[in-house]
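Appendix B. Chain record.
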Amino acid sequence: MNTPRPPSLLSRLWVVGELAIHGLDALRPAAQLVARWFIAGVFFRSGLTKIADWETTVALFTDEYHVPLLSPALAAALGTSAELMLPALILFGLAGRFAAAGLFILNIVAVISVEDMPIPALQQHIFWGSVLVGLLLWGPGRWSLDRFVWPWLRQRV
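Structure tokens predicted for this chain:
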């Protein structure tokens, strides 16, 4: 008579791995919400700083931030507007991928417009960019307005 063999170490590790993946998948909406909250705060605070002292903001865009193809005043106005509006969309997960793409572009422009960016500042921008790429790739998540708005819109189009 053949006695069933106990599961191998590899098969037991596989089962543990599958359970861990299932647990991590369950945490994805919370992680996406935290990512949205974090990145929205970073950019929104930057926008608030810019509108708090508009003359200094325009001076920075004139002397330090060399945005290609735009006048300093227009670049300051567009950048500040984006930093104030797109984070609200990101935070609520409304047009989340659009907002993440906009902030990603803004982040890249910030990096290329500052000539001698210190390494720690560059590392911050790289981190922010990676958070935004995650939101672009996986969307704002189940705990977002996109989850409710887009299906509703699709039914009406």
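Further analysis of this model is presented in Appendix C.
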